[in-house]
Amino acid sequence: MSIPTEQPTRHSLRRQLREARRALSRLEQRQASLGLYRQLAQHPNFRRARHIALYLPNDGEIDPQPLLRAAQRRGKHTYLPVLASWPRTHMRMQRLLPGERLQRNRFGIAEPRPNRARQRPLWALDLLLLPLVGFDEQGGRLGMGGGFYDRSLAYRQRRKRLLGPRLFGLAHECQKVACLPLASWDVPLHGVITAQRRYGC
Ligand SMILES: Nc1nc2c(c(=O)[nH]1)N(C=O)[C@@H](CNc1ccc(C(=O)N[C@@H](CCC(=O)O)C(=O)O)cc1)CN2
Ligand SMILES: Nc1ncnc2c1ncn2[C@@H]1O[C@H](COP(=O)(O)OP(=O)(O)OP(=O)(O)O)[C@@H](O)[C@H]1O
């Protein structure tokens, strides 16, 4: 019997995949962002959703801003992650007002100024569009390693019947891997969307 080949660790996989997305040119990024818009703007889950959380791109992530603008044009409520000052491991989703001024968080990512009155619990959103570093076709997601999304979604493990938002990962094709090593706290995605195609949705 042969020895099973070693799976690359989450750490080295993360480094490799982050390098791959950062290597995309500005033109490739623009095309990917437009392709992503075309894949999702007419999708029933996007059309139906009233409360949608997205993110602002960082570190070569695919840019969902055309979708953000489309959602705002259609009168939907759009939300961005806001890091909690305490506990530092948590984030909340806060409604973005059109034209609102943003500030940079400790990772250098722009976010709205924290305002509890505009924050909405994750389970009360209709659609959550997640950034990711890597994905597989089984719904596996590898993130930046902060555990922010997994922690925010942990209620799903405890309360399986609570429906909550559809979870779609947004990615470049170069972020796809055959099979991700999954951790016990990982929350599976319902689907992943790239500029080229939709996986599982
Ligand atoms: N666009 C975007 N927004 C997001 C996330 C994300 O992945 N993408 N997050 C998803 O969770 C949360 C922020 N999580 C992050 C976790 C680590 C790093 C990061 O750059 N880490 C550096 C080390 C940073 C440092 O300690 O100074 C690194 O690994 O190089 C960035 C964001 C909330 N907002
Ligand atoms: N539900 C949870 N409760 C407590 N700790 C958690 C939970 N989910 C994740 N963590 C912690 O967060 C850390 C990072 O997790 P992981 O590497 O899966 O993050 P990630 O999914 O890559 O990051 P992110 O969700 O921020 O993009 C882990 O060390 C884990 O201990």
Query: How many whole angstroms does the radius of gyration measure?
Result: 17 Å
What compounds sit in this structure? the ligand Nc1nc2c(c(=O)[nH]1)N(C=O)[C@@H](CNc1ccc(C(=O)N[C@@H](CCC(=O)O)C(=O)O)cc1)CN2, adenosine-5'-triphosphate
Total number of helices: 6
Task: Tell me the strand percentage band.
Answer: 15-25%
Helix vs. strand class: alpha/beta
Indicate the mean pLDDT.
Answer: 94
What number of domains? 1
Write the CATH fold name. Rossmann fold
Return the CATH class. Answer: Alpha Beta
List low-pLDDT spans: none
Q: In whole angstroms, how far apart are the ends?
A: 39 Å
- The 3D shape can be described as globular
Order of helix and strand elements from N to C terminus: HHHEHEEEEEEEEHHEEE
| Helix-residue proportion | 25-40%
Major β-sheet strand ordering:
6-3-2-1-7-10-11-12
User: How many β-strand runs?
Assistant: 12
CATH superfamily, by name, is NagB/RpiA/CoA transferase-like
| CATH level-two architecture | 3-Layer(aba) Sandwich
Q: What is the assembly state of the chains in this entry?
A: single chain
Largest sheet: 8 strands, mixed
